[in-house]
């Protein structure tokens, strides 16, 4: 009897112990068949592995939870421990994840209409998820999911909302400084330098280089400022959009101090940590130092800047851009070529004072205010970070920045760290609001327009931005669909097996990054996906081959992610930066993509075959730059036709 009681108690205690703690596996909403997927595991006790479908899966600590890599062949999920809690994901074929972006891109290029193309792409993604989740009824429900889930989520994202606000405020500023005569004053001043088509294009080019610290601010300010001048000089909107788009992102990608640097340094730092853990080596070089060294391999952004200059200086074009330029020279900027009809309302009012400072001061406030906002938010974030690390701040936050390793760092390195920690969205909002306030105050105080007229002009400016803002929202929604369908993960897995030879790694990284950015419309998400994969991979593969320098291959690979992302953005009709370029210049969006793509692919090909691949074999990057720039000059000279 006693023995039976003891056995009963033992079983009871054992069962209680098993159920006293919880284990929860959190699958993504969608898992692609035979595609490795990271899955989060939450547990009250320490775990080293889980057994799923008879496969032993290793767990890795990730903060307060664990992560395991899962590959499912079908929708059967069976853990060895029956107490594990989980919600069953939808398991779909991987190729279906490519349909939404590819359909949207193909339809946009065929029909030259982007709104319906983006909507159809989003619907196909939502319908795919709906069908696997609820059968044919799920397809009908997906029509409404497009609005109440994907578009709504795109609007609820604070970063997206900031870009929308910044865009419409810039539009408002442009409307007010156009109505009060300030823009005409700027045009009258710049026209002294922009006396012909060549000087007009070069003026836009150098303005694009000057606003190097943020691609959004660069695109909207330069595009809106130069548009009246280039219109008068019969420079096509397509050409202006190309100049704006091909200076904004490339200069932001290679400048030492930009709003991109924070994300890049985070990814590089995480990659270095993985290398140190996996390879058992210590890399003393900082993330910022690695970024600076990688610039020696940033072929596409640098080649693009030279290529644009050659095109403008030689006044030569080819392909669709040549046709657009010839048409504009013949017909001028007609009503049909203007995307926003409301621009006709931007003519100065009757009693306007044609004074350049009415435009220069608000625009200067936007530009300088953005930089100041980056410093303020960056120092604030750095202060919080240093306090959390227990760093001595007795000499001030600036003095303590960069001293975590015990060594003093230079001014520009500190500045790079500060701007890397900054909140660029907040900085852009602050500066644009300050610029708008200045424009209104200057207009009303000089009695050029009443306050009511200024507000009406502001609404006109907001209205001109609406078509492009709608495209932006739909593009972000499509990006949300591709994220739900793990499109980028499928592409990574599809190409992953080809990472075998050392020299292949930078080249394939460049191509894959470009294709992912083209398909998803986001260089930032491409970097987030590719950096964690290729940084440790490039170092590990190169370290195993005595014929290659692991650090040089890693620098090349890091630069290839960034360069490929920019190339993909330049070619994609669903890219937010490409859409913003069309918005700022009032260029038909599909025409902008069609005219820019041949140029981007030309430069991308030279970057790959003259820059990325040869330097992976050990050719000095200076030689690659010299040869590549010379080839691009010859392409412009011999392929381009005089306009």
TrEMBL record:
Pfam families: Na_H_antiporter. InterPro entries: Na/H_Antiport_NhaC-like_C. The chain crosses the membrane at residues 90-111, 118-147, 159-178, 290-313, 356-379, 425-445, 457-479, 499-518, 599-617, 623-640. Keywords: Cell membrane, Membrane, Signal, Transmembrane, Transmembrane helix. Residues 1-17 form the signal peptide. One of its GO terms (cellular component) is plasma membrane. It is a multi-pass membrane protein. Residues 262-607 form the Na+/H+ antiporter NhaC-like C-terminal domain. It is found in: Cell membrane. This is Sodium:proton antiporter.
